[in-house]
Structures are given as C-alpha cells and as structure tokens.
Specification:
Number of domains of chain A: 2
Strand order of the largest sheet of chain A: 1-2-3-13
Structural class of chain A: alpha/beta
Radius of gyration of chain A: 22 Å
Helix content of chain A: 25-40%
Number of helices of chain A: 15
CATH architecture of the largest domain in chain A: 3-Layer(aba) Sandwich
CATH superfamily of the largest domain in chain A: Type I PLP-dependent aspartate aminotransferase-like (Major domain)
Largest sheet of chain A: 4 strands, mixed
CATH class of the largest domain in chain A: Alpha Beta
Oligomer: homotetramer
Shape of chain A: globular
Largest interface: A-B, 120 and 123 residues
Order of helices and strands of chain A: HHHEEEHHHEHEHHEHEHEEEHHEEHEEEH
CATH topology of the largest domain in chain A: Aspartate Aminotransferase, domain 2
Chain lengths: 428, 428, 428, 428
C-alpha cells in the first residue's frame, strides 16, 4: 500500500513501545492476508498457524463476512452506537440465540462488555462478587485471563503479574489438573481445602477456569475434573465462570469448549474469534438469575462493536447452522494429532498437549520450542510457543484451513522440528 | 437491513443484559448514520449531540475514512495482526508522529493497548507503579477513568465503584478544582497534604486527571490549576498522566486538551475518537525514558486494531494537517457557548460548564437535566446528561457538524429546555 | 539490682534489635522510679516529663496501687486467666461502671482486647466494618493509632507506614483541623467530599480520631470541629471511634478527652494509663447495640491482664471518685501553659500546642526541638518531641507530679531552651 | 478478696462484651491460683489442663518468680520504661543470651514488640516484606497467628477471618502436612507450585508456620516436612518464620519447638509463656543480617514489659540452666501419651495428636470433644478443645505439674471421656 514500506519500518523502533512482542518473533511487515495465509510487504507469503492467538478461527478476510461488512459500511450502516439498540445488534442477538443458545437449552443473557477478553472477564468476576457478596475468586495454575488489574489477579504468570506494580489480591490460585504431576488428584485437593473451615481460603464468589489453557501450555482438563470443579463450585455457593475466550468458538472442537461436558457455567466470557473477522468484540454470557446489574453499572465506550455484529452474524450462520463445520474440525484435529505425534516421536520425553484444533507438543524446553518456531518462520510458517516455560510448540491454525494447506503446514513444522533436533544432537 | 426489524426488538429484552443503558434513554433501533445524523429502522432521523460519548468527533461514516476502509477490506488488507508489524500500523505511526508528535516536540512512544480507554488507563498506572516502585496513585473528585478494576479504583463515582464487589485501593482521591466550592484552593490543599509527612497519603506513583471531566459534569480545570498539579507531581516524583480519552482529539478545542498549557504529561491514554470512525482503538503515549516494559508485559489480543489504523491515519491527515479544523472548532465553540447561555438564562442558578466543543449547562438538578434530554429526544435530538447528580445537560456534537445543523440542534435543545422549564413552573 | 550493671550495657548493642528507640535519646540504664522521678543504675535521678508516653499519668509506683498489687501477688491472686471470669475483673468492671460510665450516662460495653493500644484500635475498626458492612475507614492527618497492619493503615506517618512493606488500604485520610492552615475549614471540606457521590471516597464504616494528637504534634481539635465530625459520621451512617489511648485518663484534662463535648462516641479504644501502674492493659468501649461479636471472634491470650485489673481499680477509686484530681490537673495545666509560653516567647514563630496536661511548644523545627530535649536530659529532665517534623517539645509529665517538682521541671526545660536558643543565635 | 463476689458476677453480663469466650465454658469466678490449680470464689479447686493456652507452662504463681517480682515492686523497680535501657531488660537479655541463644549457636537479635503474640507476628512479617521487597507471605492450613489485621491474614480459621470485615490479602495459604490426608505429599505440592512460574503464587517474602498447631488441632509436623519447608524457603529467597508462641518455651518438649530439627529460622515470634508468670510479654528473634529496622519503625507503648523481664529471667535460670526440666517434660509427655491412648482406645477412629506436652485426642467430632471437656469441668478439670471443628481434646497442663497431680488430672479426663462415650452409646 505504501510505495516504500521499508523506509517505514524504522518507525516502529522510533515510536512504538518496547512492549511490542510478536513482531520480535516474526520480523516482517504484514500487509495482506487471506484464508490461512499472510503476505508481507515484500511479497512473501506465510502459512498462519497462530491465527491471531485464536482470533481468526475462520481465517483471514472470509469472503462472506467481508462482503457483508463492505455492504454495511457502504450503506452507511452505523459504526458506533454505544449500547443503544441497533439493527446489527438485534440481528446478531437473534442469530446467536437461534443457532447457539436455544439448541443447547441455554437461557443465558448476553452482556456486551468492552471489546476485549480481559474486559469480559472483569465483568464476570465483578458480577460474581456482587451477587455473592464474597470477594475471593478461585483461579488455576497456568491460567491466563487478561491484563487489566482484576483479570491479571486471576492470571498465573508471575512475571506478567509483576507488571501490576501492586500486590494482586482477592484470588486464590489452586493447581490445575495435572499441574502437580499426573498422580496428584488436584480436584480432591481443592475439595479438601475448601471443605476445611480453617484452610485460610475464604468462601469463593466464583471459580474461573479455561478448559484448555491457551497460554498455559495447552493443558486440557478432563471431563471428570471439570465436572468435579463444577460440582465443587455449586457445593460452596460459588459461581462457575468458564473463560472460553481462546478455547471457544470451535477451537477446542465444538462451539463451546464444554459442549461435551455435563456442566452449566454461570458465566462465560467470550472474545477473540467471536467477531469471526478479527475485529475487537467480547461479551459475557450470564445466567438470567445473576443479571442484577443496574444500567451502566459496568460500561465502556466500545461495548457492542457494530462492525463486529455484522461479521459475527455471518460467521454464526455460515459455520454453525449445522454440524458440518464441527465435523470438519474433528477430522482436522485427527490429522493434527498425527502430525504432532510424528514430531513428538523425534524428541525424547516430548508429549502431546491439548485437544481439537488447539493442540501442541511439549518438547521439554523453551529453548527447543523457540528454535523450532523460529526455524518454521524461516520456512514460511507462523507459529508460536505456549506454557510457563514456553516449552510447548502450539498449533492454532485457522479451523478453515484447506486440508492440503494444513498438511503442508504440518510438514513444514515437522521439517523445522527435525532440523532443530538434528542441530541439537550435533551440538551435544 | 432486515425486512421486519420491529419483530427483532424483543430480542433485547429477551437476551441482552440489564446492564444496557443508553437504549433506555433513546428508545429506537438505530440503523444508519451519516455525519451528525442517525436514522432508525422506522426511518426517523436524529441529530447527534452525543457522538458516542465523544467517540465520533468527526461524525458518522466520514466519506474519506469510509473509502479507505472499504479499499483496505476489499484488498484483503490485514484485519488482525496481534502486535506484529503491519503496513497500516507503520502508516499510522508515521502519520501520528509527523502531524501530532513532532510539531509539538513530543518524543513520546506509542503503546498499543487493548482497544478500550480503560485498558489504556490500566497500562499507564501499571507502568507508573512499575517505574516508581510506588503503589499509590492520585486521582480526583468526579474523575472517570474506566471500569476494569485498576481504572475503576481511580474513578470517583461511588455507585460505579460499588460494582467491583471489592474495596478498591491504592488510590488517593483528592478534590478537583472547584469541587469544594469556588473559594477553596484545592491545589494548595493537595500541596499541603502531600508536603506533610504525616498526612497518611503515601508517596504517589502518579497523578491521573482529565482536564475537562467528561462524565463528572464537564468541569474544566484552569490552566493555573493544571500547571500546579503538574508541578506538584514533579516535586513529589510522581508521573503526570493526562487521561485524554474523552477530552482529546479536538473535543476540548485542540488535538490534546493540554495544548494550550505549559505541561508535558508523562503518559497520555487515548481512545474514543482516536480511530476517527468509531472503531475500538486505544493507545497510551509514554515518555521514552519510562518505556521500560518487557515485551508483552502488558498485552492483549486486539491491541492495534488494523482497521482503526486505516481510518485513524485518514482522520489525522484530513483534520490535523493544518489549523483549519482547530479554528472551525473554536468558532463552533463560541456558538455553543452562546446557545447554552440562552438556556442558562432561563434557569435560575444555572451555569455553563466545560470548554471547546465539550460544554454543557448545569441546570441544578438531575431531574430537570433528564427531562430536558428526554424532551430533546422526542424532538429528534440525541443528548445526554453528565455530573455526579446527572445535573449537566452535555453537548458532545460531532466537531464536523455543519454550522446550520449545529444551530438547528441547539435550537431544538433550547426549545426542549424552554418547554421543560415552563412545565416546571406550571407545576410549582 | 546487679552489682556491675555497666558490664551489662553492652548486651543491648549485642542483642537488642536496632528498632530500639527511646534509649537513643536517654543514654542511661534505668533501675528504679518513684512518682515523677526515675533513677539510673549510676544513682542519677531524672524528672520524668515523658511518663511512658502518657502511660504513667499517676506517676511511677504509686504506693496504693503498689500495695494492692503486692497483696494480690502475695495472696496468689490469679495472674493470668484468659477471658475467664475472675474476681479482679469483676471488681474492675464494677468500679469502672460505677465511677466512670454510670455518672456519664454511658451504656457502653467493655471489650477486653489484647493489652496494647493498637489491638484496641484493631478491634474497633473490625467491629465497625462488621456492623456496617463497609470497608472504608476515615482517619486524619497526623493521627497515630498503632503499628499492627489495621491500625497502621489509619496512622498518618508515612515513614512508619512504609514499614508495612505493603500498600495500606481501606482507609481515607482526611485533613485534621488546622492541618491545611488556620484559614482552611477542613470540616466543610470533609463534608463536601462525603456528600459528593463522585468523590471516590466510599461510604465509611467509621471515623477514627484523637481529640489531641499525641504523636502528631499535640494539635487539639476544637469542640466545634469534633462535634461537626460526630455529626458528619452520623449523617453518613459511620461509627464514631475516639481513640483515647493517649489523650484519655485525665491527660487532656478530664477522664475522657471528650468529657466537655457534646458527642457520644460509638467506640473508644483505651490503653496506656488505664492500668494506672504502667502495666499492659487495653480495652475498647462499645455501644451495646454494636456488641455483635460472636464469642472469641476477636481474641488474644493476654486480653484482660489481671495484675492490671488490680491496679486499675485502685487508680479509679483514688483519682476519680470525686473532682479533686480533675481540678488539680486543671490547675497544673495553667502552670504548664504559663511555663511553655515563657519558652515560646524566646523563639520567633513558636506557638503553644495541646490542652490540659498534654501541651507543648512548636519551636518551628525538629532540629531545635531535639536540641532542647537533649539539653534537658543533660540537666536531668526526660522529655521528648512530637509532630511530623518532631518540631514540638512535648510535656507529658505525670498528672500527680507535686507542684514544686513540676515547676522545677519546667524551669529546667526553660533553661535548656534558653541555652539552645543562645547557641543558635551565636551560630547564626 | 471481695466479701460478696457472687453479687459481682452480674457485672459481666451487664458490662462485658459478648466477645468473651472461655468464661462460657468455665462458669466460675476464679480468684486464686497456685501451681497447677485454680480456685474460684466459692472455694472450689480445679486442676488446670489449659494453662492459659500455654501461657502458664511453669504453672501459676511460681514461688521464685513471685518472690522476685514482689521484691522488684517493693523496691520501686521500674514498671514501665518504653524501650529505654533498664536493668531488668539488661538482665533478661544477658540471661536469654547465656542460657538460650549462645548454647544453640544462635546469633539472633531480640526485638521487643508489643506484649502480644499477634504483635510479634506482625513485626516479623513486616520485616520480611521490608527486607525482601515482596508482599506475599505463605502460611498454612489450620495455622493460627493472631487477630490483628496482618496476623489475621495468616490465620486459617475462616470465621475468625470474617471478623475483619475486609478481604484479607497478601497471603497464600498452603496445606499443612497431613491436612489433605495422610497420603498426600503437601511438601511436594508446595514445591511444585512455587517452582511453577505460572502458578499465580507470587514470590514469597516469608513462610510462617507453627511446628505444632496449637489452635489448629495439635497437628505436629514431621522433621522431614519442616526441614523441607525450610529448604523451600531458602530456595525461593523467602524468610523462614517459626511462630513459637504456643509450641515454644518447653511446651513441645524443648525450649524451642525446632530444637531437634536441622533448621535455622530467620525469625521467631515468641509470647505466651515467655514471662513465665502469665504476664503480657512478647518478642521476635531476628537474624542479625535482617535487623534493618530504623529506630521505632515498629514500636508500641508496652514493648518490653519490665515486670515480665523480672519473672522471665527467673524462669530461664530456674528451668533452663540444665537439661533437668527438659527431661522432666519428656517423661511427663510419655505419661500423657499413655493416658490419651487410653481415651483414644474407647472411641472408634480416635487418634492421638501433637507431641511433648502439647498433645490431645482427636475424638472425631466437636460435639463429643466439647462434651468431654464440659464433663471434665464438672469433675474439676479445666480443659479445652482445638481443631477446625473443635474435634480435639487438648491437654495443655503446666509442664511443672507434679506427677501425681498430672496423673490425677488424666484420670479425671479419662473418667469424663468414659462417661461421655457411655452416654453416647446409650443414646444411639
């Protein structure tokens, strides 16, 4: 788009804060994107196995959403409406109700929060505290829930927490399934601590958890464990908040990450792929009996991004009107498991993580995982690590990636891994 | 856009959380918007004196931004790129540097935060605490800075604060200029308290303030007071954070609300009209010596909304390449003052508030202010109240409103006020 | 008592923590004490104008209390009884009721807290928060309420606060009368801030204040101001907690510091001179309707020091059965005022502080005040400074000091001040 | 002492706060006490198996301490000296150094805190936070550390915590050994959580623990576990704080509860039996390299209770000059174990808890434990329960109880238990 973009690259060093991050792994200036591919200003193309950290589950610039959005803008469709009633909001709500909530028998209300995941989480814990009159919230090891002060308190990453410059409180962090080793029953442990009136753990307003931990190393909790936590929450009068920001919208295999489980979350913060197009959009589903907000008690200028309503509606209709897309995810997930197993087989001690299209390989060290991702980028594949030590090579490809392209991406990843393993062996 | 939109209206009652708010004042379903006008699904048009709470300073669907955005989408320009380098980001940064920062001699770095004002504020106070090693932050009576836990702690509104369900700490609230009555020197008071080593007010990491309080009743601080606070911050080793989310981008009369003052804020959170098109977008300007973030220490999926980069660049070029727009604001502000004075003259005790295109009339009670706004809506004007008692009728018209339309809007407002005052007199 | 005490002095350097403090001002090893005099191990005597910071209002080793305590111990009277019923407790309670509470029409309950002032304060604020369901507590500039975490949060001294190693929260510090200069009406200011629903000051559970600030520079609040604060507390549903730990038990002129005012505190923490003999003892008086504690909800091993019950009862009977002692205090207070005025007259800008037998001279700087106290010590007078800059020479003589000795002490102080002033003039 | 004490009993109901507690279990007015016996005002005698919750380890009114205290008072020995140097303090420090610290090679400094355990704990955690610059402190399930805000945050009991009326923060509560069942390795769990950089558990300033949990059910941690915690603290740069307030001074079998373990605590809060006579007295031992307090940074009027110095010195000399007393405790502890085993044998599922002279029987329910203690009181034995459900019958007899009397007390307890068990069986 610019005639001499290389000259512009210096502007990042000159004017963008040091806090910038992904650009350090992927040293290119991206310009266009389509489906599962990104193109930089020098004309190089890349297969995208990152998908905006699961914000682009339907790929880049889906043609149907694109058309609808262009039509909306062309027709002077409203772009910003605070939380006034608008036709795009009505249509989104109606579609969401019809295709997502009603078929599952969910009677949740939709709360339009500020258009970021962290805001949707903040709204949920505020409401849980307000409703229960309790302050303590339970979250879990390796959980990631956002960066504003309330959500950051829930987040496990100690270096991110330190950014607050404040002690973060009012949260009890319990060990997630598997985080103390395979043999340790963390559910029993949580129950024992909560049942003990002298544990020092104050009665919780809520349990907040991801069912597959996106930033925390792609650990997927078992159905037994999740249902146990749900039961524990109920037993102690706490609300169950499933943070489906990264694992939802098909990423973990179905629309909600908990579709296959026998739980009914009280609140569900959603964001990332919700708009379908990568536009900022978030909401929190809340059980109607908890909907005791006074008007604007939680507000925000950009709650209800109208452009996102337009694309989100199309996304719901296109992908979730029947089971075809879900079946496609399932099929692709098998391919993914097989591909990752091939990589794991190269590396002693490596193990698969995650489920659905949210899988990765724990290669044992952040060093090796980082090297594999760097090598993959050289070979035209965008992919990142995950985990408290960045030890997991994480595949977050668009769910819509054509199978051939998906396999090609996996082959590139395998080659990159192979190359790194050989280099490592040579060095030892 | 839908054939039978009236049928859809029930979906809001059925599925949208009680927290929804503006829709209660403006009972219509909005569909299209252009310039300073909104159109509902029944074909009614409204003049917009709310502008998305100052998120639409350039009006709705500005044709140049619209064209650029459509071109970007049409060309499969990247829509979501996390914080990778992208050509739209480079162009935005270069334009912002060239038209805004460089002419003012500002060497600030641009931190792309999550695309909400509250996130930009959270980033600023995190950084102030990190840099200073101090926890206390000073904010002011009637200030509004957001709804996530850190920003909410800064916010003055006690009922909004109560929504946290937690005691909010680490903030000292001092009285804003004028909030203790015209005669009380709140600057001297702040200085006396901070100079006293036994005041109980711990050394502050930062002072956070709006120069015109958008939600707090449109109080505009004097140059003397603001410069005094800046001096006080420096004296006590605290960072000066000017929250220009609502008052900035021309609203208060110039690009930054402090352009006419002799201060150099250490950090400046910006949002609302930043994208120019009503798209979610926020950033925090930070002095380069404070830019000590580690990569991703504060992050967020939607930091750096690419569509917003596209429109924001056009907005900067179109409106801030020279002084013409600023002069236009100044002229319109005079008309606004005159119009509001006519209203104030009808109401004993009423007084003007604010400055630039961020002015209103304190009519003495929330009841009367609310009645005026409700009456204005019936007459086709969208306008809201402000202030701790909702006692100020607040005009936040698009800065681009054509003069005739602007005057027509003011006339409608005057008529509405007149009607309410007559009704009130009749009732007494 | 030891044959070679000088050898033992090294043990302090060797084994006592650096936190020790008064020993740095008074470099002697004290051994015996009687009335208003202290004797060191080398046989030197000192007049005591410090009285254990008002813990020895009846002087050292009062013969009647001494006799009763020896009798109690000799007869194997119980020394430690947790909070079981004991005859000394019954007798103390009956005496306190008969001589103190009943004559004033006070129906307060007596809560035996841990035997320190800070514990009595912690109990009071816990109860205020429990009763009101609110977290915020208001305290005042230059207030001192103790060193445990809850009480420290109330305390104004910023360097003492820093000792917490934590941000201290849940307290709003408002300016005490006079702390912003003589002309500023801090009561009106407090009222304006509390009446403003957007002040950021959450509804308070309690106001906590001293009527004469012992550590904060001997500022005595006026009756008007105190009654105004009491009214303000009632208006906002907050409990009024008068910390009478240092100013009570006759120090400010009558048994309670508020005896001459038209207020009824909801809670009154007491300690220091309560035992009469310098023994650790504290309690909190609470209005019966607030006495909603469950058994042991606040507890502590040494609550209800039995030896202290024995001496406290004697103290009450001996000094508070009629008005003679109060009259004596009044008379001595006049002598004190006169004496301090003589000192103030020597020093430009000096001014008297305090009331009753809790008076001092603000000499304008901590340097001069410290020099006067140091010089006084050389001359055999024990006296300390007060105030945020240690700028006040503070007289806290035993209320029982014989008049001749009291005047002698004041003469010594005058001589010390005169000497320091001359030195200072010579140096300039 | 009074002629008609029965008349006085009503004063408690009339004037003492509902918070009173032990008096509800032991409905008598106590008057005198000697050795292991208490006498009420009606002439009844009781064997004391409570010892002021371990504050009377040497029994009541030990004749040697009594004589020394009377001599001190008779000679007008100083009663209250703030933290000035005094001969009794010198003698206490010299004796404590000679008999306790030096023989153990401990170079700790002695910090005189306010004379309550909670204050000693508050001082320790303040210092740990100050020294490390960290806020988080780790404490353990069922731990009890006091009732002021900082210490209460460490305490496990949820109902006591609720008394704060505030969320209690800055503490992570981890499970104590055995609290998750015998099979769960809580040490490994703690290590796994602390080693995980995404556990959400911020780097700790300190670990605070009791080696035998006095209020928490007399659980005694194993040497392996304690040494593991000490190692873990060192590994993570945290200070090790052993709260020896209840378990120390011989109670758990030796002077310090950790004498038989290979650990060196950084800080040791002590109180309860420290004075030897039941007088309020507390201190915190701190490693010299941590003694970075500024003078009076933590202070308190009654720090360094002079009467307590006098008796504490005698106690140290009488009981800790050689191993005789320790051997006597060991012998008595065996008798205690045997006696409690007899009771446990009556009750299915009952099990012994604790060690040294700090043992009890977990009888499975608070109801039964309470009934046994109530029945024991009727039979002239004062004894209390412990544990989060009050399920442990806890023996805290004076360590000096003559063997015959001790056995008689145990027989009474056995009879009471037997009676209750029979009643229970009859009722089933």
């Amino acid at each position: 788009m610019t005639t001499d973009i290389s000259a512009d690259k210096s502007v990042f060093a000159r004017r963008e804060s040091q806090v910038r991050s992904y650009c350090r792994s992927f040293d290119a200036v991206f310009d266009r994107a389509l489906g599962a591919e990104l193109f930089d200003t020098e004309g190089n193309s890349y297969i995208d196995f990152l998908s905006g950290c699961s914000s682009l589950n339907y790929g880049h610039n889906d043609p149907d959403m694109k058309a609808a959005l262009i039509a909306h803008i062309t027709g002077d469709g409203i772009a910003h409406a605070l939380d006034m009633y608008s036709s795009p909001k009505a249509e989104f709500l109606e579609t969401f109700e019809r295709l997502i909530l009603a078929p599952r028998g969910m009677d949740h209300k939709v709360m339009m929060t500020g258009p970021t995941g962290t805001n949707a989480v903040e709204a949920a814990i505020k409401l849980a505290r307000k409703v229960t009159g309790r302050s303590n919230v339970i979250s879990f090891t390796n959980g990631f829930h956002g960066m504003t002060l309330g959500a950051l308190s829930l987040t496990g990453n100690v270096s991110k927490r330190a950014g607050a410059g404040l002690p973060l409180g009012d949260v009890t962090h319990l060990p997630y399934e598997g985080s103390l080793g395979e043999d340790v029953d963390t559910l029993a442990m949580a129950e024992a601590m909560l049942d003990n009136g002298s544990s020092g753990i104050d009665a919780p307003a809520a349990f907040v958890l991801e069912l597959v931990q996106g930033e925390g190393g792609l650990t997927a909790a078992s159905r037994t464990w999740v249902e146990g936590i749900a039961r524990l929450a109920k037993k102690h009068g706490a609300k169950l908040i499933v943070d489906d920001i990264q694992a939802g919208i098909g990423r973990a295999g179905s629309f909600f990450s908990f579709d296959e489980m026998d739980i009914e979350p009280d609140m569900i913060p959603m964001a990332k792929s919700l708009s379908g197009f990568g536009l900022p959009f978030a909401l929190t589903l809340i059980k109607p009996e908890l909907d005791v907000w006074t008007p604007a008690e939680h507000n925000g200028t950009f709650r209800g991004n109208t452009h996102a309503f337009v694309t989100a509606k199309i996304a719901l209709e296109k992908f979730w009107s029947d089971d075809a897309f879900k079946d496609e995810i399932t099929e692709k997930a098998t391919v993914l498991t097989d591909g990752l197993q091939r990589i794991a087989d190269m590396i002693p001690g490596a193990r698969l993580k995650g489920r659905g299209m949210m899988q990765g390989v724990d290669v044992g060290s952040g060093g090796l995982a980082g090297a594999i991702c760097a090598e993959a980028f050289v070979r035209g594949l965008i992919i990142e690590t995950s985990g408290s030590e960045d030890e997991v090579v994480k595949v977050l490809a668009p769910l819509t990636t054509p199978m051939a392209q998906f396999k090609a991406g996996l082959d590139t990843l395998t080659d990159a891994a192979s190359s790194c393993v050989e280099t490592k062996i040579a060095a030892e």
